[in-house]
Amino acid sequence: xxxFTTFQHQCPACGAPIEWHSKEIKVVTCSHCNNGLFLEDxxxxxxxxxxxLVQYPSLLKLFHLFHxxxxxxxxxxxxxxxxxxxxxxxxxxxNQKTKKSYWLSVDEGDYALEQPLNxxxxxxxxxxxxxxxxxxxxxRKLQLQHDNGQEETVQVSEMGEGVCIGFVGELPxxxxxxxxxxxxxLSGSEQRLYTIEISNDVIxxxxxxxxxxxxxxxxxxx
Length: 222
What we know:
Layout: E1 7-10, E2 17-20, E3 27-29, E4 35-40, E5 43-50, E6 66-68, E7 71-82, E8 87-95, E9 101-107, E10 110-117, H1 129-135, E11 141-145, E12 151-171, E13 180-187, E14 192-199, E15 202-211, E16 216-218
Antiparallel strand pairs: 1-2, 3-4, 3-12, 4-5, 6-7, 6-16, 7-8, 7-12, 8-9, 9-10, 10-15, 11-12, 12-13, 13-14, 14-15
Organism: Thioflexithrix psekupsensis
InterPro entries: DUF4178
Protein name: DUF4178 domain-containing protein
């Protein structure tokens, strides 16, 4: 695979060869038996679950390079979440030049590229989960405080609950089928968006931008 270091091991469930392409990867699925495997301290542990995904028509495919504007991106992992009215996919993608990684969220025709942001940028998070839940109401305007001292007004545009229903490929964090979290999307200026997630009393904040899927150019394989 272009521009990737490859790490190899044997699947502890079926003995087949497995490989992954970044030291930050924590979970990989075996392409032979579909078992989820946890990578820790150079050891590979069987999570005891099998995960597959029904693949629907999509611009993105695992390990198929795509270009967005001047950036070449490689999707190496995919997670699917159910939110009651349907599902959305989160793709773990790696910029081939900078080696930076992102979550690329795809919900029907909406595409958003996101990275983690210090949760302290959302002031209620300093007071804990209860304060965050109290602050989040649909259409409410809130303030974010960035590291450069600037404040940004955002508006709560969506709230809901996501449930993991499957994953494949390589992922940067431990995840299980059935994992649940509450989320809120916050709309900012200049196509910026923010996502707050709450799971097991842990608060996470992500910052991203909406991207135009018509600007995604897929490198087709023969």
